[in-house]
Amino acid sequence: MKMFTYGTLKDVEMLKEYGATDIAENAYVKGYQMYSYRNGFPITKKTGYAGDIIYGTLFSIPKEVVLYTFDRIENYVPGRERIHNMYNRERVFVRRNDRLISEFEIAHMYLANEDYFIDHYIEENLIESGLWEDAVKEVMPWNLGK
């Protein structure tokens, strides 16, 4: 199963332990913004604006890992009404920096339930760079090696 992750689930060593292959750390999606939720983890918002970009990791992983591990981490229950999930897994167009700009792949991405996080989509929480590492550096400067 193709996945695109941008925060907690993008650690390459962890992904390899779960059996991920075809790992590309130079991937991104357009039309989404990233925010920091209480300086603990990233949340996303779909904007549809091509200038809004989130950078992350694209990879293939066994479907069972997604269903039984990643979905639980992201509090996503397939088939449950979207409003009751903390994140929803959706298919998105993913591009890679080492490919032509017109080339893309379709992968699954966890998108924050905007109703659940509505009070946190404020300017001071916006991660303008689209890189979760930039937010982590600000709140956990000792974690620069990760």
Describe this structure in words.
This is Gamma-glutamylcyclotransferase AIG2-like domain-containing protein. Pfam families: GGACT. The protein is an alpha+beta fold. It is 17% helix and 36% strand. The chain is built from 3 helices and 7 strands; from the N terminus they run βαββββαββα. It has helices at 12-17, 63-73, 132-139; strands at 2-5, 21-30, 32-37, 41-46, 53-60, 87-96, 105-112. The strands form 2 sheets. A 5-stranded antiparallel beta sheet has the order 1-5-2-6-7.
Quick tags:
alpha+beta, Hypothetical upf0131 protein ytfp, Gamma-glutamylcyclotransferase AIG2-like domain-containing protein, 146 residues, 3 helices, GGCT-like, AIG2-like_dom, GGCT-like_sf, globular
Task: Set down the secondary structure blueprint.
Blueprint: E1 2-5, H1 12-17, E2 21-30, E3 32-37, E4 41-46, E5 53-60, H2 63-73, E6 87-96, E7 105-112, H3 132-139
Antiparallel strand pairs: 1-5, 2-5, 2-6, 3-4, 6-7
Quick description:
InterPro entries: AIG2-like_dom, GGCT-like, GGCT-like_sf. With 146 residues, the protein is an alpha+beta fold.
